[in-house]
Amino acid sequence: MNNQFNLSKTPDGRVPEWLGYARANGTKGIRNHLLVVYTVKCAEFVAREIVRRSGSPDVELIGFDGCTDNQYAVRQIISLIRHPNVGAVLAVGLGCEYMQPEWLAKIAAEEGKPAEWFFIQDKGGTHPSVHCGLEWTRTALDLLKETPRVPMSFADLVIGGECGGSDYTSGLAGNVVAGRFFDRLIEQGGTAIFEEIVEAVGLDQYLESRAANEKVRQQLRYTYDKALAYCQHARQYSISPGNFAGGLSTIEEKSMGAVIKSGTKPIQGVLKVSERPAFPGLWLLDSTPDPYYMDFGITNPSDNEGLMDLTSCGAHIVFLVTGRGNVVGNAVAPCIKITGNADTYARMSGDMDFNAGTILEGSRSIEESASDLARLVGDVASGTPSKSEALGHHEFHIIYKYQEKEVLPCRECER
Amino acid sequence: MQRAFVISPKDNVATALDELQPGSVRLLGEAASLQSEAAVKIPRGHKLALRDIADGEKIIKYEVVIGQATTDIRAGEWVHLHNIRSIYDERSSHLDIHTGAPKDTKYE
To answer: What mean pLDDT is predicted for residues A405-413?
Structure first.
């Protein structure tokens, strides 16, 4: 581990590097996880027990609770199986659900990842299933130790950013520093994904002005119109009593404070959940459901869900910017929690990774603080656990939602 | 001295970094214009009018419109739910000024 990470090249001209994990599919990961996936809530206990009894911090759990195979959720599970931080996959099903563990294991194997699957009903219940899962997990963990290492730099990184529990510092410090870091990451050839289009109310022209080209401008327009229609339809904007009490007066004010985390670079396109950026640069993630007669799903039901959406777009690391504080982690991509509120940082220092409040106290400039954040990102990318990883947080949240794969004009808006 | 943060010289509001008492306020930020004056007590994290804002005028922060004045606001006043509203959110004028709690939902 070294501390040579910087936003620019190091003084001797080197681009900061660390050793990542080379995947057979050509991607590079910063963690070497064995992912245990359950395909219905009924299989969760067995899957969770395999993870717990493996005793390994590299074994992570994700799963989908529903018995019907919601297309959105299936896409998300598959994208997490293909994620560069994942090296091996065990899919655990009960035996009567729609989502097929065999097909998930097949996809993992096609990616060149050790993979196995079984049905709990076939194995004969809890005890034999956990035993079988543990046996395979031990073998797979040995295989993972042989994963080839490969040099990585900021140019290889995809970082996702969202905010939650915002207060007045989010738009003055936390998101400002995250945005400046994203600018520098992109200058080094890296990729940043920001989300929460429902928190861009009133900023349609601003967003359009940052589109890389006409096609992207149209994507941003479609996505904005849909998000606004969603909020009008629900008669609910993404702002809460706590936000008001903390000094934010309108959704427009909160929106600009949130969008500022995207920095200043041109937006290269809009991603749907589970879609990978086609090339480096800045991307907007649209996690809002598309209109559908079953009205499946809500947008941003929790920070965990938002972090999962960013992860499913290939983010190696996810930022959670929170003025009021949070404790969550993420099963697949290490979570770095940033606060612009020095009091929150002091009160929750066991959980918060980064204090951007220094720019309000005047002890660090925005650029210096972004440099500090870059060093932390370099450390976490090279293996140092983030606070949530060290504490054993492994949250995931995969929900029923309806989403088209393409960015399309909003049907609801045309009615 | 008590402080507030200005994001852009085009903004007509600043954000209180301390609980402001009536009196002088030091303005921080890359677009700070040195000093302002609070006319009333303003909670930390809330907004201070940097100049007189007329009824119906746009409230500007981050160089973007964050709402509209619903009454005349004098320089130094507290800018919040009682004197501005969202241009989009219809519930914006039905919120408790101190807690932000909605007053348009019936609990019956």
So the answer is: 76
